UniProtKB/TrEMBL annotation:
Protein name: FAD/NAD(P)-binding domain-containing protein
Signal peptide region: none
Gene3D superfamilies: FAD/NAD(P)-binding domain
Organism listed in the record: Friedmanniomyces endolithicus
Stated family: Belongs to the FAD-binding monooxygenase family.
GO molecular function: flavin adenine dinucleotide binding; N,N-dimethylaniline monooxygenase activity; NADP binding
Length: 574
């Protein structure tokens, strides 16, 4: 791989994972069919899928089409994955239609979204439509939280058990547990002493009302941005506690009519194909120019055009050296700051949210999309507290005690403190390798995968929407389909060859990790700590978990490994 390939994502680099989310359109969740959760008898299949979000649904569909018997275990009570759990105020995806959906013609031909960026309610409706169209429910067991998974060498099968008493056996195990699902709550001193309401964004109580209350929100990431936009208009007072701001981009939300979508559907096959053959999952044209290769007036004209397009266009189509060159990055940041300060006019607030000196390089951590975030921050009832200047000391009975011993009283505290990204779900399900060692112990000093879809010591186990892949920089459904369809192709080839098992080699893992680290060193991403490298979790090793060369390069590379099973040990049946 050349240096140019390694950093080909450049300004295409963007975090549009299935984390963000919500309200807006007048949509109502349909009545759910009966939940299948029976536990009697052993569930047997060729393929067992863990998780029923976009990844799990894609796996069920593609393995069925391969002619294999597939079953699924899901910890929630319905389909949706992160969108089953994400119900906080303002929860909305920041990946735009028509690209935030699965490329399944029988599903999309009769489905219409109502907005450019769908909210959590509409996405659950969409999941129900997929279920109804594909009859997924007949092969899915809900309220089934996996707590043990073991490989049996004698029978070449995985045995998986759940907290609720399910037991399932399958030749192939497909882990679709999500990128941002395992919630993270810091070990706040005195949190049990607080007598008011506490709500984590990932475990939201939909009966909560902000009206008439003094509310604190801890966090300023993508989730916090969306919650702030809503609660700032409802609460008597809202105080945002943050260590550093997010560099938000304008969403430019709009309605999307049935007539418009009906006309666009003729182009869906080409759009999805081109999205798949792109760096981040959107069929956008790359900018071939460096920032200093053009005049200042041409630069400003491009910035203005990309800004007005909304969504992630300011990153997707910006100058090719934005994520490589510090001087270029500063010019981009300064433009972003100027546009933000046009709206966030309170000098004290914009000194925190858009400081003159950038607290980190632009595009090196998630840039949330916003609708009226800065207008909400401008409101007199919304306050900012800079934790880098006066840290939080502890919770108290009536609120929060700061490092200067001041007590700030609140009726409710919202924890927008994020997730144990990439590995949180995988390491909490009791999955053991062939020697009986838990994955959480194997990864305690750093994670290792091969191709971002397999792990040495775990025969016939695959995973999707994963670390050491382009996941954080990609449109969720696109990278999911790239990974799952590659896994399905691998399994199909193994079956045609009469294979009993496949396992990644340890050396192949080491080489894969070294390659990803080398690619990352060419970019400015390496200089910023965030959930992209696990630095948001105390005690978790901070390390590169991102494949920066893009979906198209990634899929081509991992599919090439099937030729002669490079990096794998394959054992055929006797």
């Amino acid at each position: 791989m050349t240096g140019n390939d390694a950093v080909s994502y450049l300004n295409d680099e963007v975090a549009v994972t299935a984390e963000t989310a919500p309200s807006g359109a007048e949509v109502h969740e349909s009545t759910k069919p009966a939940v299948r959760e029976e536990t009697e008898g052993i569930i047997e299949s060729d393929v067992l899928v863990i998780g029923a979000g976009f990844s799990g649904i894609t796996a069920i569909d593609r393995f069925r089409k391969l002619g294999m018997k597939v079953k699924c275990l899901e910890s929630g009570s319905d389909f949706g994955g992160v969108w089953y759990w994400n119900r906080y105020p303002g929860a909305r995806v920041d990946s735009e239609c028509p690209f935030y959906q699965l490329n399944i013609p029988e599903v999309y031909k009769d489905w219409h979204f109502t907005q450019r960026f769908s909210d959590h309610r509409e996405l659950r409706q969409y999941m129900a439509h997929i279920d109804k169209t594909l009859n997924l429910r007949k092969d899915t067991y809900f309220n089934a939280r996996v707590n043990d998974a073991r490989w049996d060498e004698a029978t070449s099968t995985w045995t998986v058990k759940t907290l609720q008493g399910h037991e399932a056996k399958a030749k192939y195990l497909i882990l679709c547990t999500g990128l941002l699902h395992r919630t993270y709550t810091p070990d706040f001193q005195g949190i049990k002493d607080y007598k008011g309401e506490i709500h984590h964004s990932g475990e939201w109580d939909e009966s909560f009302s902000a009206k008439g209350k003094k509310i604190a929100i801890i966090g300023a990431g993508a989730t916090a941005v969306q919650i702030t936009q809503e609660l700032g208009k409802q609460a008597d007072e809202l105080t945002v506690f943050l260590r550093r701001p997010s560099y938000c981009l304008p969403m430019k939300q709009r309605a999307w009519t049935k007539e418009e979508q009906h006309q666009w559907k003729a182009f869906y096959p080409v759009l999805f194909k081109e999205g798949r053959d792109s760096a981040v999952g959107f069929p956008t044209a790359r900018n071939p120019n460096g920032l200093f290769d053009v005049s200042e007036s041409a630069r400003e004209a491009l910035f203005d055009e990309l800004w007005e397009r909304g969504g992630f266009n300011f990153q997707l189509a910006n100058f090719k050296d934005t994520a490589l060159d510090k001087d270029v990055n500063k010019v981009v940041y300064d433009y972003w700051r100027r546009r933000v300060c046009e709206r966030l006019t309170d000098p004290a607030k914009n000194a925190i949210m858009a400081p003159e000196v950038a607290p980190f390089y632009f595009g090196t951590k998630r840039s949330p999309l916003e609708q009226d975030y800065y207008e909400v921050l401008n409101r007199p009832n919304v306050h900012l507290h800079d934790l880098s200047k006066v840290p939080l000391k502890s919770f108290a009975e009536k609120g929060l005690v700061m490092a200067d011993d001041s007590l700030l009283e609140f009726d409710a505290i919202v924890l927008a403190t994020g997730f144990d990204s990439y590995t949180g779900s995988l390491t909490q399900m009791g999955i053991k390798n062939k020697d009986g060692v838990d994955l959480k112990d194997l990864w305690k000093d750093g994670l290792n995968t091969y191709l971002g879809i397999t792990i040495s010591g775990f025969p016939n186990a695959f995973m999707a929407y994963t670390p050491q892949a382009p996941t954080a920089l990609s449109n969720g459904p696109t990278i999911i389909e790239a990974q799952v369809e590659t896994i399905v192709a691998m399994v199909g080839k193994l079956e045609s060859e009469g294979a009993r098992k496949i396992e990644a080699k340890r050396q192949a893992e080491q080489e894969w990790k070294a390659m990803l680290d080398a690619m990352s060193q060419m970019t400015l991403i390496r200089l910023t700590d965030s959930w992209w490298n696990g630095a948001n979790i105390p005690g978790k090793k901070s390390e590169n978990m991102v494949y920066v060369a893009g979906i198209n390069t990634y899929e081509k590379q991992i599919r090439e490994k099937m030729d002669g099973w490079q990096g794998f040990d394959v054992v055929t049946a006797a």
